[in-house]
């Protein structure tokens, strides 16, 4: 496919897609430190925060399954623009309507946009990189996509915390600024080279198929457990940390709440990039150790309570689950034929996003009836058991 005179070179387009993906992902977690403000303004209970967060995950799953494959024949650039339009609509909803029904709708719409963009941008990055550096390992493009995802999720709570701490109207201004940012991203994306022939490649619509490798069901189950537990930890820290800091530690610093949530994502992203070239078996050993130490610290910090231990435990366990999630992707991808790999990985991502929904909502509901400290301790123990079991099983398979 020849480059149009109105598009960027493939190399520049690669970085435009990466930056747009990073910024769109960051908007997903901007509300994290703002949830206590929404809670105070509307008077809804803690469990409603987890439902609002779960609405986002439901939207992501819907976007991945129903619209994720469309870019294979409709075009990467076109679907990215549609995804950004949906994110912009979500920002508008946040601006004009802040009651619970609007928050639920806005989070679902935002999730659908991110679900489309996640599948599409990852493929687009790989194809653009292959044009400019055809002999380079695809791991590089995959790592850029991974860092853009987790790094963006880390930036969002910091931005939200800064606005909550230093701006008079933190429920309005961040959404206005991000609306402008998303529109600028859409303009930039319009000049990125297309990598799919949208005419010759056009096909009949079908939802994303989900495939379990028939000869490796148990191994895939282990990878799924790792992905589920990793996202359970990330989702719980994103959703409940701000409220937990207020109720347990008496700390109403919104910036601290944002930094605490961001630190977990940041440690996961840094670990993924730093250990990219390390053998899978060693990565999994690191993940097991970090999950154990980190989640024990989270449990002790919740029980005492100790803010330092709680935050430190989140950072250390973030390293562990970041490695664990990347290892789960590598394990699942290696289990199936390349022609069916996308379908297998789609199922893995579905399981991962269920980890954002089920445990997070369960923790939020339990906190309505049981002491929040006890809920966090039990949660830490369960996630510790799941992450260590998955890590040990995947490490054993990597050694075989």
TrEMBL record:
InterPro entries: MFS, MFS_dom, MFS_trans_sf, MFS_Transporters, Sugar_transporter_CS
Statement: the UniProt record of this protein carries the keyword Transmembrane helix: yes
PROSITE patterns on file: MFS, SUGAR_TRANSPORT_1
Keyword annotations of the record: Cell membrane, Membrane, Transmembrane, Transmembrane helix, Transport
Subcellular localization, as worded in the UniProt entry: Cell membrane
Entry's transmembrane regions: 7-27, 47-67, 79-98, 104-126, 138-164, 176-199, 220-243, 255-275, 284-304, 310-335, 347-367, 373-394
Cross-referenced SUPFAM superfamilies: MFS general substrate transporter
Pfam families reported for this sequence: MFS_1
Topology in the lipid bilayer: Multi-pass membrane protein
Domain Major facilitator superfamily (MFS) profile: 12-398
Protein name from the UniProt record: MFS transporter
Source organism of this protein record: Microbacterium awajiense
């Amino acid at each position: 496919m020849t480059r149009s005179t109105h598009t960027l070179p493939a190399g520049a387009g690669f970085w435009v897609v990466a930056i747009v993906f990073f910024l769109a992902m960051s908007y997903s977690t901007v509300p994290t430190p703002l949830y206590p403000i929404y809670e105070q303004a509307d008077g809804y209970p803690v469990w409603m925060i987890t439902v609002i967060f779960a609405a986002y995950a439901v939207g992501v799953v819907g976007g991945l399954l129903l619209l994720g494959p469309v870019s294979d024949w409709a075009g990467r650039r076109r679907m990215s623009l549609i995804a950004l339009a949906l994110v912009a609509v979500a920002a508008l909803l946040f601006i004009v309507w802040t009651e619970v029904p609007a928050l639920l709708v806005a989070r679902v719409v935002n999730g659908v946009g991110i679900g489309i963009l996640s599948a599409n941008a990852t493929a687009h990055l790989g194809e653009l990189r292959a044009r400019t550096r055809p002999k380079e390992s695809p791991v590089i493009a995959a790592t850029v996509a991974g860092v853009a995802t987790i790094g963006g999720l880390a930036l969002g709570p910091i931005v939200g915390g800064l606005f909550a701490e230093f701006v008079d109207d933190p429920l309005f201004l961040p959404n206005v600024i991000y609306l402008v940012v998303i529109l600028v991203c859409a303009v930039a994306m319009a000049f990125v080279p297309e990598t799919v022939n949208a005419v010759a490649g056009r096909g009949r619509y079908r939802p994303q198929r989900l495939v379990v490798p028939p000869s490796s069901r148990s191994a895939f189950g282990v990878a799924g457990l790792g992905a589920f537990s990793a996202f359970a930890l990330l989702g719980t820290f994103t959703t409940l940390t701000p409220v937990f800091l207020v109720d347990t530690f008496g700390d109403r610093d919104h910036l601290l709440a944002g930094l605490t949530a961001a630190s977990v994502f940041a440690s996961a992203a840094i670990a993924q990039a730093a250990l990219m070239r390390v053998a899978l078996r060693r990565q999994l050993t690191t993940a097991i150790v970090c999950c154990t130490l980190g989640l024990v610290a989270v449990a002790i910090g919740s029980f005492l309570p100790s803010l330092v231990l709680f935050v430190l435990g989140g950072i250390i366990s973030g390293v562990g689950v970041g490695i664990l999630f990347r290892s789960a992707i590598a394990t699942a991808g290696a289990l199936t034929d390349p022609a069916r790999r996308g379908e297998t990985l789609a199922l893995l991502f579905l399981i991962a996003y269920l980890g954002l929904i089920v445990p997070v909502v369960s923790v939020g509901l339990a906190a309505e009836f049981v002491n929040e400290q006890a809920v966090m301790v039990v949660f830490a123990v369960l996630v510790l058991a799941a992450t260590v079991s998955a890590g040990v099983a995947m490490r054993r398979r990597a050694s075989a």
